[in-house]
Amino acid sequence: MAAEGESIFHDQSDFEYDYETLRTAGVIIGVILFVSGILIALSKKLTCSKSSSNSNTAGTQIPKTDVPPPTV
């Protein structure tokens, strides 16, 4: 039975990772995710500031409500 198990997985024993390619792909994916996260954060910040400046010029402000502090 052990001989059958070895023959099934014999092809994978010679497998080796190409660490240079894995490292390069990981860095590229990390940079893409980081830049897209920054762009999403900045786009939300810019659209919020534009909408709030338009509402201030119109003279309509949403009144702030007082929220009581949480009790522990």
UniProtKB/TrEMBL annotation:
| Name under which the protein is recorded | FXYD domain-containing ion transport regulator
Q: Which Pfam families match?
A: ATP1G1_PLM_MAT8
For this protein, the parts annotated as crossing the membrane are 22-42
Molecular function per GO:
sodium channel regulator activity
Extract one GO cellular component term from the record: membrane
Q: Which organism is it from?
A: Hucho hucho (huchen)
The region called Disordered is annotated at 49-72
Membrane topology is: Single-pass membrane protein
Entry keyword Nucleotide-binding: no
Q: Does the keyword Ion transport apply?
A: yes
Q: Which UniProt keywords apply?
A: Ion transport, Membrane, Transmembrane, Transmembrane helix, Transport
Q: Quote the PANTHER family the UniProt record gives.
A: FXYD DOMAIN-CONTAINING ION TRANSPORT REGULATOR, SODIUM/POTASSIUM-TRANSPORTING ATPASE SUBUNIT GAMMA
- Kindly give the InterPro entries that the UniProt entry links to this protein: FXYD7, FXYD_motif, Ion-transport_regulator_FXYD
What family does the entry list? Answer: Belongs to the FXYD family.
What is one Gene Ontology biological process annotated in the Swiss-Prot or TrEMBL record?
Answer: monoatomic ion transport
Superkingdom of the organism of origin: Eukaryota
Q: Which compartments is it annotated to reside in?
A: Membrane
